[in-house]
Design goal:
Blueprint: H1 9-20, H2 24-37, E1 42-48, E2 54-59, H3 69-72, H4 84-88, H5 99-104, E3 108-114, E4 121-125, E5 132-134, E6 139-145, H6 152-155, H7 161-178, E7 183-188, E8 191-196, H8 201-215, E9 217-224, E10 227-234, E11 246-250, E12 253-255, H9 258-267, E13 280-285, E14 291-292, E15 303-304, H10 307-323, E16 331-332
Parallel strand pairs: 1-7, 9-16, 11-13
Antiparallel strand pairs: 1-2, 2-6, 3-4, 3-6, 4-5, 7-8, 9-10, 10-13, 11-12, 14-15
Helix pairs in contact: 2-7, 7-8, 9-10
The chain binds adenosine-5'-diphosphate and magnesium ion (MG).
Adenosine-5'-diphosphate binds next to helix 2 and helix 5.
């Protein structure tokens, strides 16, 4: 029998990266989530070669104390939770303290940051032992270059530049839809491809899903106890041949959850033909203790404590919103759905 030995730290991170860092778009998601967690109001993304050559995310968030820069790249180090209690109440996107360490293990990464009040910015590269002074007026810049340069087996799974770019663009749209007050720009190979000014839910939804969607959309705003469903859902006249315009969020997090999609589908069952897919941007808000976002590191799946109740709520809420006359007010279902 071979003897047992602990794995080197870098290899541990590279294995973890295999789960979370599937492609440039997954890196982008983690970086933008960090910017949002830092309270950014402006987030600028620059991609080169589909994000494989370079992903640079610049934000105006709170920044990172220069003494903490090495910890930002360390595994299991986070500023977002400190206890199991915090974990059950977590409202930030991140909490594992793993993303930057994983990404840093499979790329050339640098973090440059200047928190409020700091005399100047400091930068840390993942291949250096010490921080160095840098030029930045405020906020944080994270650069991820040459993704998978040191793990060629993973690099082989990357698709064409156009495909990787398209995934990055999808990620931006998902994040932008849920954060309408935050301004975003995205450029690819030095060309600006998306620019979203700060707005509200309505203006951001219209920008992202288009006037045609909006012309057929019903506003959804239904509450029952601690559950609330808001957003926009299109009437069947605007339906799709695929799921490409189904945006579902749980406490601000984009999810692709079978239970939620099924409940929505059921709400459309009587009015939408079997081969067509509804289009919607829906936001479910509930007590964080009622939902486990810890199911998967990429956190696209969630688990509800009361799955049946959630299913019923979504179904009734959406069915009502779709049947309500145009321009009708928010609906309070009170206790009737539970
Ligand atoms: P997590 O987000 O789960 O805490 P990460 O590895 O993504 O883990 O980030 C580690 C830490 O680095 C965060 O907890 C945060 O304190 C800091 N950090 C990362 N990105 C930023 C940013 N853009 N602005 C401010 N702080 C950041
Ligand atoms: Mg994070």
């Amino acid at each position: 029998m071979p003897r047992i030995h602990p794995l080197p730290e870098l290899l541990v991170s590279q294995i973890a990266a295999g789960e979370v860092v599937e492609r440039p778009a997954s890196v982008l998601k983690e970086l933008v989530e960090n910017s949002l967690d830092a309270g950014a109001t402006q987030i600028d993304i620059q991609l080169h070669e589909g994000g494989v050559r370079l992903i640079r995310v610049t934000d105006d968030g709170v920044g990172i104390d220069s003494d903490d820069l090495p910890l930002a790249l360390a595994r299991h180090a986070t500023s977002k939770i400190a206890s199991l209690d915090d974990l059950e109440r977590v409202v930030s996107y991140g909490f594992r303290g793993e993303a930057l360490a994983s990404i840093a293990s499979v790329s050339r990464l640098s973090v440059t940051s200047r928190p409020q009040g700091a005399a100047h910015a400091m930068r840390l590269r993942n291949d250096a032992d010490t921080t160095e002074p840098a030029a930045l007026s405020s906020g944080t810049v994270i650069e991820v270059a040459d993704l998978y340069f040191n793990t060629p087996a993973r690099r082989k799974f990357l698709k064409t530049e156009a495909t990787e770019y398209a995934h990055c663009s999808d990620v931006l749209q998902r994040m932008a839809l849920a954060n309408p007050a935050v301004a975003f720009t995205l450029s690819h190979n030095n060309t600006v491809r998306h620019r979203y000014g700060p707005g509200d839910e309505e203006s951001r939804t219209r920008t992202l899903l288009g006037d045609d969607f909006f012309a057929h959309a019903r506003r959804v705003d239904v509450a029952a106890g601690e559950l609330r469903l808001t957003g926009f859902a299109a009437l069947p006249a605007y339906s799709r041949s695929g799921r490409d315009e189904q945006y579902f969020y749980v406490n601000g997090r984009f999810v692709r959850d079978k239970l939620l999609m099924h409940a929505a589908r059921e709400a459309y069952a009587d009015i939408l033909h079997g081969t067509r897919y509804p289009a919607y941007a829906l936001f479910l808000e509930l007590d964080p203790a009622e939902v486990d976002v810890n199911v998967h590191p990429a956190k696209i799946e969630v688990r509800f404590r009361n799955a049946r109740g959630i299913h019923q709520f979504i179904f009734h809420a959406l069915q009502r919103a779709l049947a309500a006359p145009i321009g009708s007010q928010a609906i309070d279902m009170g206790a009737e759905s539970s």
